[in-house]
Design goal:
By secondary structure, the chain is of the alpha+beta class. The chain has a single domain (3-136), classed as Hotdog Thioesterase (Thiol Ester Dehydrase, Chain A). It is built from 3 helices and 6 strands. It has helices at 22-39, 44-49, 122-129, and strands at residues 3-8, 52-63, 72-81, 86-95, 100-112, 117-118. Strands 1, 2, 3, 4, 5 and 6 form a 6-stranded antiparallel sheet that branches. Strand 4 (86-95) and strand 5 (100-112) form a beta hairpin. The protein is elongated and about 45 Å long. The chain starts with a strand and ends in a 9-residue tail after the last helix.
Length: 138
């Protein structure tokens, strides 16, 4: 399932050329990842209480089209699990007409906050804690 949040580009997020500052794409992506976890029943306080926390290990952004102040965009997020301790976070920033403004791909894991080690099966662990685990599977 692909989760999404709609965002309006704000004037203070623009760079000197009048388009969305490169770092703000990462902020949008982070916001939507946390909204996905929250929608699944995993707000930060629950994760902390259960002794785990998601961690970003690598992030790549491909900028495709510029965004300007006042534009509404849809930021998507999908978790893709495989084998091992990490998983892929696939995200897009889409303009209203569906044009891809940016592609954001990350490698993430779930950290055991006591041992400070990645959990062996992050998808199963998150699903076992979630109220809406279907939101967590890509």
């Amino acid at each position: 399932m692909t989760f999404f949040v709609d965002v309006t580009v704000r004037g203070y997020e623009l760079d000197t050329q009048g388009h969305l500052n490169q770092a703000v794409y990462l902020q949008y992506a982070e916001h939507v990842r946390w909204e996905l976890l929250r929608a699944a029943g995993l707000p930060q306080e629950k994760l902390l209480a259960d002794g785990v926390g998601p961690v970003a290990l690598e992030v790549t952004v491909k900028y495709r089209r510029e965004l300007r102040g006042g534009e509404r965009v849809r930021v998507t997020c999908r978790f893709e699990y495989g084998e091992g301790k990490t998983f892929t976070v696939a995200q897009q920033v889409l303009k209203e007409d569906g044009t891809v403004a940016a592609e954001i791909t990350g490698v993430a894991g779930v950290l055991d906050l006591t041992t400070r080690r990645l959990i062996a099966d992050p998808g199963d662990r998150l699903a076992s804690l979630a109220k809406e685990p279907e939101l967590l599977s890509g």
